[in-house]
Design brief:
2 domains, about 0% strand, single chain, mainly alpha, Cytochrome Bc1 Complex, Chain D, domain 2, elongated
Length: about 160
């Protein structure tokens, strides 16, 4: 009888270990490796903008709140590249493009690239904007947000917004 109980415990233990191994393998297969853009976002941006892009109030804006509108206009794209956190980051132009494209795909939710207003950044575009310095970041951000908001409202009312 004791031999049967011992064998039964061994079978249950073997089954439990098997289930854990299968579960661990499933999790390992489901886990996506981090992209270079995501890694550099974590290292260079996440400290201020948080993992989901929400920021810290007025001093560090929420990337999600007006990100789509800003990235839809050339001045907004230039702003994203020229803010001190981007312009001064210890990243190559290609690496900064990857970070900004990670923001577009993961934080702004255009993973499949279907939103035509969210064009991906290229290394050449980063190079063209990166040397531009912004004297008053908060003022420029406010002006850009106001401009894109007014244009958006004008378009909704039937105007051109231009």
């Amino acid at each position: 009888m004791q031999l049967i109980e011992t064998a039964s415990k061994q079978v249950r233990l073997t089954i439990a270990i098997g289930v854990l191994v299968v579960a661990a393998m499933s999790c390992a297969q489901a886990a996506q490796p981090m992209t270079a853009g995501q890694q550099n976002y974590m290292l260079q941006c996440q400290g201020c903008h948080k993992a989901n892009g929400e920021g810290f109030g007025e001093s560090v804006p929420d990337l999600r709140s007006v990100g789509r509108q800003l990235l839809a206009v050339p001045a907004g794209r230039q702003f994203y590249v020229s803010v001190p956190g981007s312009a001064n980051a210890p990243l190559s132009d290609q690496q900064l493009a990857e970070v900004l494209n990670f923001i577009i795909a993961d934080i702004l939710g255009d993973e499949d690239g279907r939103d035509d207003s969210l064009t991906r950044f290229t290394e050449e575009e980063i190079t063209s904007y990166r040397s531009i310095r912004i004297a008053d970041v908060q003022r420029l951000r406010e002006d850009l947000v106001k401009s894109v908001t007014e244009n958006s409202l004008a378009k909704k009312r039937g105007g051109t917004g231009e």
